[in-house]
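Z., the sequence and structure:
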Amino acid sequence: MSSVNRIIIVGNLGATPELRYTQNGQAVASMSVATTDSWSGKDGVRNERTTWHRCNVWGKLAETCAQHLTKGRTVYVEGSYESREYTDKQGANRVAYEVKVDKVTFIGSGKRDDGAQQAWAGDVPAKPQQSSDPDFGDDPIPF
């Protein structure tokens, strides 16, 4: 039996993404995304609970996020959920839970000058595949 480790979050950025580079020069952007649940209790009082999600974006996508995203922006992020063990400043062992993001879609008020929504997915845009079938031409799809 196989398993699946996939998480999808749609929420708001708590701060502008923080861009840094690893020792080998790979870009990584860290960002916190907030999701809020709301419900009415038995007494009719409206309640809210905000959950903060630590997200790390890598490569070219990290640079794009750092360049275009700001605090408060709504984003769709997709990736895998990971845990990381570390020792804090007081010497205590800790565990951090983070999302390793591989897809980001910018939602909301981030409009380009031409009014189109900005969206980036993956680390580098995929190059269209060329068919090896000689009967497969460049004609438009007939529907």
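The first strand starts at residue 7 and ends at 13. The two ends are 40 Å apart (CA to CA).

Let me know what you think.
H.
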